[in-house]
């Protein structure tokens, strides 16, 4: 075992700190790049360094954000950059996950809090099976006269009517119209959902499962991340058309009963 001397240890810490500060904190391909690291902490995991892969279950609720800059009010925007709608490799669209204005640190702490109304309620990441999505969180300085641009008011009022409404949100245009300028800090992470392969599909009848279907498809397969078999039943003829629709347009949710447990697979 080799011991590091104090100067060596300090040098190592300084180097890793500098490395974190000089690399892009925005997702690959995102313009403009910022080198400022935005602290993003979920209850179970902190996004540090930027770009780590985190379990879907750890990002269910909105994170707390932090930045070492006081007396400034910020707007946070979270996006998915990997929405796959047509099923072609070329299609990665955006999906708006969160907009929270009024973030500031009330005292000397670096944690940001807000008492302003959320503009886009936090929607948890949930890539479809077999996909890995890139999520970015950006912090913009909030102008003193900040307001939701007039042409976005009805959009945000109706945002939660359907997940579809969040797809294709243009962050650049919104930031421009709201006078937010460029991001002052950012962070990003990946979420993967394991592939669940289906090995047989057959028609059967399913009992009381919440959907109360008349006809169901029973799907037997292997959860590759578990290495074990499972049997799931997907409810009703109507749901089958949602499934084929979902494969085409990638927007609806599929409710799958696994014994009595529900797996809701949402296409984003
Ligand atoms: C914080 O900013 C406000 C408005 O710009 C200013 O009036 C105030 O003096 C600042 N406070 C501190 C502690 O810098
Ligand atoms: C977008 O799709 C391309 C493949 O067409 C892929 O290389 C790239 O990583 C995707 N970007 C994101 C942010 O998922
Ligand atoms: C979109 O999904 C298809 C399969 O459904 C996959 O082959 C393709 O790589 C995906 N594209 C992206 C950018 O993830
Ligand atoms: C700073 O503000 C936060 C949020 O209101 C609070 O939890 C924390 O205790 C405060 N810290 C100090 C040192 O006042
Ligand atoms: C609200 O969203 C729903 C679902 O996307 C859509 O059908 C409806 O037309 C929207 N309403 C308005 C007023 O935009
Ligand atoms: C946002 O809109 C601008 C201006 O129309 C366009 O150049 C850009 O490609 C759009 N970005 C996305 C992600 O759609
Ligand atoms: C597949 O396995 C993973 C890891 O054990 C688990 O988190 C997930 O819920 C499983 N999915 C199904 C459909 O059983």
Write the layout of secondary structure elements.
Layout lengths: L5 H17 L16 E3 L10 E2 L10 E3 L7 E10 L9 E11 L7 E2 L19 E10 L11 H5 L13 H7 L7 E8 L3 E9 L11 E8 L4 E8 L1 H13 L3 E6 L2 E6 L2
Parallel strand pairs: 2-8
Antiparallel strand pairs: 1-3, 3-6, 4-5, 4-7, 7-8, 9-10, 10-11, 11-12, 12-13
InterPro entries: PEBP, PEBP-like_sf, PEBP_euk
Pfam families: PBP
Organism: Oidiodendron maius (strain Zn)
Question: Can you walk through the features of this model?
Answer:
- The protein is of the alpha+beta class.
- The protein has two domains: 25-192, PEBP-like (Phosphatidylethanolamine-binding Protein, Alpha-Beta Complex), CATH 3.90.280.10; 196-266, no CATH class.
- Helix content is 16%, strand content 32%.
- The protein has four helices and 13 strands.
- The strands form three sheets. It has a five-stranded mixed beta sheet with strand order 2-8-7-4-5, with no helix packed on it.
- Strand 10 (216-223) and strand 11 (228-235) form a beta hairpin.
- The longest helix has 17 residues, at 6-22.
- It starts with 5 loop residues before the first helix and ends with a strand.
- Residues 1-21 and 198-268 have low confidence and may be disordered.
- Bound molecules: 2-acetamido-2-deoxy-beta-D-glucopyranose (7 copies).
- Residues 106-107, 109, 113 line the site of one 2-acetamido-2-deoxy-beta-D-glucopyranose (NAG).
Work out the strand percent: 25-35%
Question: What is the count of DSSP helices, taking H or I runs of 4+ residues?
Answer: 4
Q: State the name of the first-level CATH class of the largest domain.
A: Alpha Beta
Stretches where pLDDT falls below 50 for ≥5 residues? 1-21, 198-268
């Amino acid at each position: 075992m080799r011991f590091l001397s104090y100067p060596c240890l300090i040098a190592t810490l300084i180097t890793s700190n500098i490395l974190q500060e000089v690399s892009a904190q925005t997702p690959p391909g995102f313009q403009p790049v910022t080198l400022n690291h935005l602290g993003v902490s979920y209850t179970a995991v902190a996004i540090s360094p930027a770009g780590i892969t985190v379990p879907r279950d750890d990002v269910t609720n909105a994170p707390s954000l932090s930045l070492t800059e006081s007396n400034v009010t910020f707007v946070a925007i979270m996006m998915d950059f990997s929405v796959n709608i047509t099923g072609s490799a070329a299609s990665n669209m955006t999906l708006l996950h969160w907009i929270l204005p009024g973030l500031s640190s009330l005292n000397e702490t670096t944690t940001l809090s807000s008492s302003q109304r959320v503009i886009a309620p936090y929607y948890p990441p949930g890539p479809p099976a077999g996909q890995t999505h890139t999520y970015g969180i950006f912090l913009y300085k909030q102008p003193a006269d900040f307001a939701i641009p007039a042409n976005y008011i009805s959009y945000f009022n109706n945002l939660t009517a359907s997940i579809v409404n969040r797809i294709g949100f243009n962050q650049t245009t919104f930031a421009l119209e709201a006078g937010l300028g460029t991001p002052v800090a950012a962070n990003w992470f990946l979420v993967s959902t394991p592939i669940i392969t289906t090995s047989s599909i057959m028609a059967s009848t399913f009992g009381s499962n919440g959907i109360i279907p008349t006809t169901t498809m029973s799907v037997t397969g292997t959860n590759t991340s578990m290495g074990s078999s499972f049997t799931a039943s997907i409810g009703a003829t109507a749901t089958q058309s949602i499934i084929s629709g979902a494969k085409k347009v990638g927007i609806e949710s599929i409710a799958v009963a696994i014994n009595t447990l529900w797996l809701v697979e949402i296409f984003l």
